[in-house]
Every structure is written in C-alpha cells, then in structure tokens.
Design a protein that fits this description.
This protein is of the alpha+beta class. Strands 5-6-1-7-8 form a five-stranded mixed β-sheet. The chain has a four-stranded antiparallel β-sheet with strand order 9-12-10-11, covered by helices on one side. Helix 11 packs antiparallel against helix 12. The longest helix has 21 residues. It binds a DNA duplex through helix 3, helix 8, helix 10 and strand 9.
DNA sequence: TCTCCGATTAGAC
DNA sequence: CTAACGGTCTAATCGGAGA
C-alpha cells in the first residue's frame, strides 16, 4: 500500500453564535451583532459588520459601549442551549460524510475525506448542505495535516473567491511556498500572542519561515510542541484525529457572579450548583474523581478592593461521583475558607484524579457505604427529561444574587416550544 | 541525582 | 443610575521537596 496524501477537511462555522441567532432572526441579516460571554462580560462572537467596525474578539463589552451606540451594534447574551443544539445538527450532517471525523469544538469538525471520489464536488455539497439544512454558513479547508487543514480553512474564510472551500493539496510546491510566505505565523494553530513575539526575535515572521526554520534551534528554543507544528506544516501528520472523545482528566464548574457576594450561605448555594453541574459531567463520562478542589475569588479587576483568592483541595477517602457526597465536602471547604469583609466575585469547584467507574478500587479495610449510585442515576434521568435543575441538591440556586447577568438573551427557539414566535 | 508534585504558562475556542 | 473584564480544558515546563 502506498501512503497517499491525507485529504483532511476542517469545517468551521462562520461567526457561529451570531449565525445561530440570525437563523431565527432573519431581520438581523445586515445588522452589526455581537454575542457576549457569560455575565454579558466580553465579546465572544462578532458578525462581519461588527468586525469591520473594529470590535475586537474578547473585548469587555463595557469598553465597546460607545462604539456600539454610535453604530447601532446589537449585543446579545449567549444562549448556549441554542448553540449546542445547532451544533449537534451541523455535526450530524458532517458525520454523514465520513466515519472518521472529530468534533473539535462547538463550531469546528475535522472530517477525513481521504479516498472519497469527487472530492471537490463533495466538499462543495457538504458546505451547501449544512447551509441549506441548518442555516449556518461554514467554510471548508482541506490539507494533509490538521495544522494545514486549519490554515486552509483560514484561507477559505478570508478569500471570497474560494467560495468557502480551499484545498491546500491542490497546490504545487512553488504555490505552497508563495502562499505560506504571505501568511503571518500568528495564523498557525498553536501559535498565540506570546509565541508570535518570541518567534519574531528568531527572525520567524511568516508561516514559510517557521516551516523552514532550523530544527535544532527551534526545538531548543520552543520545545516539542513547536517541533510538531513545524512537521505538520511540512505535511507530516503528528496530531492524530481523535474519533473517540477521550474522557476528561479534570472537570471544572465555576462562574463569576452577577453581583458581588458577601454572605457564606449565598456562596454555599452557588457552590452547590457548581457541584451539581460538575458531578453530572463526571457521571456522564462514567467516571469517579478522587480529589476535589474548591476556590473563592474576589474581583481581580477592582484594584481598589481587598483581594482574597483562597483555594483548598481534599483527597477523598474514596473516589466518588455522588453530588451529595461532593457537596458535603464543598460546603465544609467553603466554610473553612470564608472570611467576612470580602466582596466575592467568583467561585468554583474542580474535580481531578479522574478514573473510570469500572476501575473502582474498593477499600477492603473500610467497607464502602451504601452506594447512592441509583439515586444519582435517577437524578440525571429526571434532569434530562424535565430540564437541568429539575432535581436539586442542597439549596442549589435558591439565592438569585450570585446568578449571572443575561440581560439580552434570545429565546431557546430549538429546545422550548414556548419560545417559538407566533406566526400570523 | 532522580522523581514526583504543584504551580505557572501558553494556547484554543 | 452605575459599574461593568468568560469558562473549560490540555500539555509542557520549571523549581522545590523528598527519596
């Protein structure tokens, strides 16, 4: 068998959250829109109009207010129920094109199209089908490695001439060199702000510079990760497609509060919500955790206020995924760390030392307590059936003060009948 | 000296 | 009216502690 060049596609939804909102609000087609992060804090998705007006990714919304006012930019709170549902629809369509695919993020999917006939037609069809069936516009980049597929996608997005598709494998080696010489390194997957600066100090400015860089020097100055990136840019696959999602090694549930919190009971209430979420995730991947870490934080942006960011962790006597067990520990830890006179702005829990439930190592010295696994299974089933938070642990969410601000959220069009607008 | 650990860093989205 | 700045996750790396 001769090794043939991999035709690996990266399909990426355009301005995903904004596009989801527009599916149900066609009247917003040409309106500059942004979607905000939790707590209406930062801009996390921008329509092309908003980008053109100079709104930056990740920018705190309050800093954009003046510009937004001036140009009539519409800001929406993020609606994760909607985005998750739309994402599932897009991914379901893409998975029909290859059993070898990896859902890489809420809006991106790698699809291995190696060996399929009529590659070009198929990739156009794939794109058209997603748009037609979901209303979400996507771009497709194809290359021999993940890193080059990502780069190809960037080109597809940037050049309207590509009509949303770009295949790096179609280029001659001279064309490849010319192209990569015109793209700056910061566009490369894995090269962020800091590395861009350091690479520049080594005279590496373009993707082509990185591709051709002296390996021992690169390796010495930037480590194995950069070495892999370089090889990927040379067309040698170093990052495998992960078609089965690996279990999480750590699970975090945390949130900034809508308003500062001064009261232990409110903190404990918030914490019980985080515990419920984190343990539900743990159970969903059929795991136990044996270390839990709980943290509190004041507002680090308020230089004028006293800062306190305590964190405590406990190794559990027995690994668990039981919300009630974890909550007893979390409650205790919050009590231990709490000091009055601080304005708490964020809290959370981290579960680690995660192992599959099948590997449960029972402690033969201490007989294990009656397993409440059945109870948790019932809780999960009810919450799935009737919505998250239908069955609660502890006070979970009884206090509203800590809950996040979401002043401009759209309805849950796809998951809640009552949210559908009435049509005349 | 080697190893293990926690904390820190960098990046993605 | 005012204050207002996300949440998860992974992997590498580094320095100190302990064997």
């Amino acid at each position: 068998m001769s090794a043939q060049i991999q035709q690996l596609a990266l399909v990426d939804c355009n301005n995903f959250y904004v596009s989801c909102e527009r599916v149900f609000r066609p009247d917003l087609k040409d309106v500059p829109i942004v979607v905000l992060s939790n707590n209406d804090g930062c801009v996390v998705s921008r329509s092309n109009e908003s980008k053109a007006l100079g709104i930056k990714m990740g920018q705190p919304w309050f800093q954009c207010k003046a510009l937004a006012q001036e140009h009539g930019i519409l800001a929406l709170s993020s609606n994760y129920a909607l985005y998750a549902d739309m994402s599932n629809r897009v991914m379901a369509i893409l998975s029909g094109y290859s059993p070898r695919h990896e859902v890489y993020s809420i809006d991106e999917c790698f699809v291995d199209l190696t060996g399929i006939p009529h590659l070009k037609e198929t990739s156009y069809q794939m794109r058209e089908r997603v748009i037609a069936w979901t209303g979400i516009p996507v771009c497709v980049g194809i290359g021999p490695t993940k890193t080059l597929a990502k780069l190809a996608n960037h080109i597809a997005k940037k050049h309207p001439r590509s009509k949303g598709i770009f295949n790096y494998n179609d280029l001659t080696s001279t064309q490849q060199e010319n192209l990569l010489s015109r793209i700056t390194v910061d566009e490369v997957w894995g090269v962020g702000r800091k590395l861009t600066v350091r690479l520049a100090e080594h005279g590496i400015h373009t993707v082509q510079d990185l591709r051709m860089a002296h390996l021992p020097t690169l390796r010495a100055g930037f480590g194995v990760v950069m070495e892999k990136t370089q090889r990927e840019l040379q067309g040698i696959a170093c990052i495998d497609l992960e078609d089965v999602t690996p279990a999480k090694k750590q699970i975090i549930a945390s949130r900034s509060f809508g308003q500062a919190v001064h009261d232990v009971d409110v903190l404990k209430d918030a914490m019980s919500t985080f515990v419920a979420n984190a343990c539900a995730k743990l159970r969903a991947q059929e795991s136990h955790a044996s270390v839990i870490q709980v943290f509190l934080q004041t507002n680090r942006f308020r230089r004028d206020q006293a800062q306190y960011m305590p964190s405590l962790s406990v190794p559990l006597p027995q690994p668990t995924n039981d919300s009630l067990v974890v909550n007893r520990w979390a409650d205790y830890l919050v009590g231990r760390m709490f000091k009055p006179d601080y304005a708490y702005k964020k809290a959370g829990i981290m579960l680690s030392e995660i192992t599959p439930t099948t590997h449960l190592q029972s402690d033969w010295l201490e007989p294990s307590p009656a397993p409440s696994a059945n109870l948790m299974t019932a809780v999960d089933a009810l919450n799935k059936r009737f919505g998250r938070g239908f069955v609660k642990i502890s006070t979970q969410g009884a206090f509203s003060q800590w809950q996040m601000r979401q002043e401009r959220k759209s309805p849950n069009y796809t998951t809640d009948w009552a949210s559908l607008p009435l049509v005349a």
